[in-house]
Specification:
single chain; ten-stranded antiparallel sheet; 5 helices; globular
Amino acid sequence: MTWHTVEIRVVAATLALAMNSMPVMVPRLAAQGVGPKEMAERLTGVWKLNVDWTPASPKPGRGRAFAGGAAGSFAALLSAVQRGGRGGDRGGGDGRGESSAPLMPAEVAAQAALSILHEVPIEIRIEASAEAVTFRDPRGEWHFKIDDRNSTMEVPGGTLRTRSKWDRGVLRQEFSSAQRALVKTWSIDANDRLLLVEKIESITFKSESKAVFDRQ
C-alpha cells in the first residue's frame, strides 16, 4: 500500500462522513413515523377547501358540494331509484352496467351512493381517534370504525361494503358495490394541509382526483 492509496482512502472516508452528517429533507410526518393516535390528532379539526391548490375545484357555493344534508342527498337518490334510476359513470347514463348489461336496482342505488361519497365538500369537520373517525359536512355525518375489517353501509335501495384502516400514517377508506369501488385516502402534508385523494375503479375505467384543505 502506498501513501497515495492511503490518502485517497482518508479523503473518501471524510467525504462519506460529511454526507452522512448532512440533514435529509423528508416530509415531516414520514420523518417522525407518525402512529395512528398522533395522525388522528392531526386529522381532527375544521378544514376548508383550498380552491387554488385543488385541480378543477368548485367555487364556494357552487359545484360538487351538497347543501341539503346527507338525508336530502340520499332522499334524492332513493327517489331516482324508485323512478327507475339509471347507472353510468357517476350514477347517470343509459341504465347499463360496466358490461353493457342493465343494472339491478340495488347496484344502481349503490353506485349512486358512491357518487355522493365521491363529492368534495367546501368545508368539513373531522373528529378522529385511533379507533374511529367522524366526518361532518353539508351532507350530514359519517361514522366509521378504523379496524381494517369489512362492514356494510346501508343506503336507500342497496348496500355498500366499507373498510377503514391506518396505512403508514394515512387513513385509507374503501367503499365498493358489486361493480365499482371508491378509495379515499386522508393525510396531512408538511405544511399542515389536509390532502384527500379519491380513486374510482371499475371494470372499464379508472379515475383519480385530489383535493387540498386548509385548517380553520
